[in-house]
Amino acid sequence: MSASGPHTRFAPDRGLTGRMVTTMFLIGLLYVGFTGVLIVLLRGAWPLIVLLSGGLFVAQFWFSDKITERAMGAHEVTPEQYPQLHGTIDRLCALADMPKPRVAVADNDMPNAFATGRNPQKSVVCVTTGLLRRLEPEELEGVLAHELSHVAHRDVAVMTVAGFLGVLAGAITRIAFYSGMMGGGNRNNNNDSNAAIAMIIIPLVSMVVYAISFLLTRVLSRYRELAADRAAAQLTGRPSALASALTKVTGQIAAIPTKDLRQAQPYNAFYFAPAISAREAATQLMSTHPSLEQRLAQLAKISAELGR
């Protein structure tokens, strides 16, 4: 797993590669352990557990681009509809020597962008109409280079897989409670006792699994955003334009109505900038993104290096 993709000019990032490999290894161990605990506790239902976990994983991974697009209200657009957007992505893909992803737009006033997809050939880059209205061409180029670097580094696929375990833990718990998996209709005292134990242990295990996967994805998410900022600044040679876009987008998001921000928050890990208010940004300890100050400081450092 390379953090620059096999055939792109985005700067390789060994730190990102190491973190992605470590996260996938730990998530894999957690996934196997969680499934094993469920099979032991719900012995008669193990075929359903394996089928459910496998089916959810395939659906989440294989259709991640479609699922995310639909959830965020995005739709694919043609070069005739958005010539400037397509033209900028064409130039950046040629500069980075990478395949062009599908291009989408979400009708949303919140200025933001995201990339998703299981690999560079099955990826999509989406921007909101709010972003297109607010950014200058060079600022938009910086944001799009940031999103394309996520595709080239393949960290979008890793985040999709890493976030899956929390989804699975919640789904299994709900099914265990509301289906007949806990013992069916004919129970004796022994079955009742086993069911009671399972009813206690499964939610506890699910909460632990969710908490660990949450922490792992947050740590990886913050680093991958810094890596994408670095790669975009180095590819375009204009870190100041990306810094300007970051400042503008973050300030404008803080002015978006709280109701709209809450609807977008479940997808924060995929966004260019998190959908949070200024007050939340100051208090959010487990954010999906590094602070604006940290991102701007890194871009200022890159600008100084390029100047020399």
UniProtKB/TrEMBL annotation:
<feature type="binding site">
    <location>
        <position position="150"/>
    </location>
    <ligand>
        <name>Zn(2+)</name>
    </ligand>
</feature>
<feature type="transmembrane region" description="Helical">
    <location>
        <begin position="197"/>
        <end position="216"/>
    </location>
</feature>
<keyword id="KW-0378">Hydrolase</keyword>
<feature type="transmembrane region" description="Helical">
    <location>
        <begin position="156"/>
        <end position="177"/>
    </location>
</feature>
<dbReference type="Pfam" id="PF01435">
    <property type="entry name" value="Peptidase_M48"/>
</dbReference>
<keyword id="KW-0645">Protease</keyword>
<feature type="transmembrane region" description="Helical">
    <location>
        <begin position="21"/>
        <end position="39"/>
    </location>
</feature>
<dbReference type="InterPro" id="IPR050083">
    <property type="entry name" value="HtpX_protease"/>
</dbReference>
<keyword id="KW-0472">Membrane</keyword>
<keyword id="KW-0812">Transmembrane</keyword>
<keyword id="KW-0862">Zinc</keyword>
<feature type="domain" description="Peptidase M48">
    <location>
        <begin position="81"/>
        <end position="301"/>
    </location>
</feature>
<feature type="binding site">
    <location>
        <position position="225"/>
    </location>
    <ligand>
        <name>Zn(2+)</name>
    </ligand>
</feature>
<keyword id="KW-1003">Cell membrane</keyword>
<protein>
    <recommendedName>
        <fullName>Protease HtpX homolog</fullName>
        <ecNumber>3.4.24.-</ecNumber>
    </recommendedName>
</protein>
<feature type="binding site">
    <location>
        <position position="146"/>
    </location>
    <ligand>
        <name>Zn(2+)</name>
    </ligand>
</feature>
<feature type="transmembrane region" description="Helical">
    <location>
        <begin position="45"/>
        <end position="63"/>
    </location>
</feature>
<dbReference type="InterPro" id="IPR001915">
    <property type="entry name" value="Peptidase_M48"/>
</dbReference>
<feature type="active site">
    <location>
        <position position="147"/>
    </location>
</feature>
<keyword id="KW-1133">Transmembrane helix</keyword>
<keyword id="KW-0479">Metal-binding</keyword>
<keyword id="KW-0482">Metalloprotease</keyword>
<dbReference type="InterPro" id="IPR022919">
    <property type="entry name" value="Pept_M48_protease_HtpX"/>
</dbReference>
<dbReference type="GO" id="GO:0008237">
    <property type="term" value="F:metallopeptidase activity"/>
</dbReference>
<comment type="similarity">
    <text>Belongs to the peptidase M48B family.</text>
</comment>
